[in-house]
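hey so u asked for the seq, here:
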Amino acid sequence: MKTKEKIISTALRLFNEKGYNNITTRHIAAELNISPGNLHYHFKHSEDIIKVIFSELIIEMDKMMNNLNEAEVKTLESLFDFTFHTYEIFYSYRFIFLNFVDILKKIPQIEAQYEKITMGRKNEFQTIFSDFQKNKIFQENLPDFIIENLSTQIFIIADNWVTHNSITLKLPKDEAIKHYSLIQMNLFYPLLNPEQQELYKLNYINK
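ran it, structure tokens below
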């Protein structure tokens, strides 16, 4: 692993473990047993490291979205897998979500990225939801305002569940991912066809 990759990996771990506001480039350099000058050769400020980490998060999510989008047949299981793996990824980058507003204010580039991503994801989700209707997973006669607001509801839950867990339930990683991914999945339950609702309860609720 190259020095730059080691810096990013170590920074992500330290930010997650000790908190974004408690870690400087000096802490990262000390953890790697390299000089601050060596680290600053690659990244002048911790914000520069965070930009790269945020971009890596986006790349991982792009792959997930593309896989779901390109699936010829979309099922309830594929929707659950997408949701569950999304929450696994978000947990791996949890410091971003725990400090989301602060990071957006300090790093305008990330704020601009997030705004662009939000608009793009909404269009992607609309296509996915339409496919779920075609595949008779979702009901066909759902009101437009329900479908149009669904992506916003997903963003609200997905972007804030890590904070909610850290303040309230304090569940460990595996339990937290399972618990909150099901909470998001429950959004879809009223939209499912009756037979899919029964399948949902059988596979995800009554286990």
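The mean pLDDT is 96. Residues 46-205 form a domain with the Tetracycline Repressor; domain 2 fold (CATH 1.10.357.10).
lmk if thats what u needed
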